[in-house]
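Service request form, structural biology core

Requester: graduate student, group of Dr. S.
Request type: structure prediction, single chain
Budget code: on file
Notes: please return the result as structure tokens.

Sequence provided:
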Amino acid sequence: MRKYFVTGLLVLVPLAITLWVLNLIIGTLDQSVLLLPARWRPAVLIGLDIPGMGALVTVVFVFLVGVLTRNFIGKQIVHVWERLLNRIPIVSSIYSSVKQVSDTLFSSSGNAFRKAVLVQYPREGSWTIAFLTGTPGGDVKNHLAGDYISVYVPTTPNPTSGFFLMMPRADAIELDMSVDEALKYIVSMGVVAPEYVVPASKNLKAVPPSL
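Core staff response, request fulfilled:
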């Protein structure tokens, strides 16, 4: 009985959590329906609330914004909008900081979270997986002698929190592992290992200077 019960949990728990997360996301996005004019809302048009309608509206809105800002006129509008926000105290600092982070994370040409590396943390001899985020900049760079890289060490099982570290490039070992595989490995607390494991002799390579 115990074996069958545990087997049932292994099947149902991931499904239940997945459905719960999807319901939370869709429920949150459904609030965007309130941004529509009252006469365009499903409750008025057909007398019924449609689950997921807000998620669809959000996706369409984001897509249209992307299409509009790809042309010359759209770029000019965004430029004027950003100049206006940058003139507002407090708002300017928040907006500029968030924009820099989002541009780095979502840029196809950036290095943020493009490579998983192996580093010693929190002490020598203890290893963990980190993500390469770039190289130190600003005045920090002037105080670091040698070739340094910036890495993000996520916590487990919640990788959205973690630690930002700057370390010598030679102290980080490049992993032959995708970012998705590394995240699964971290979230599962090491239980879900990548299917393909590279021999240790091939893993012992420092992060190349080009990264």
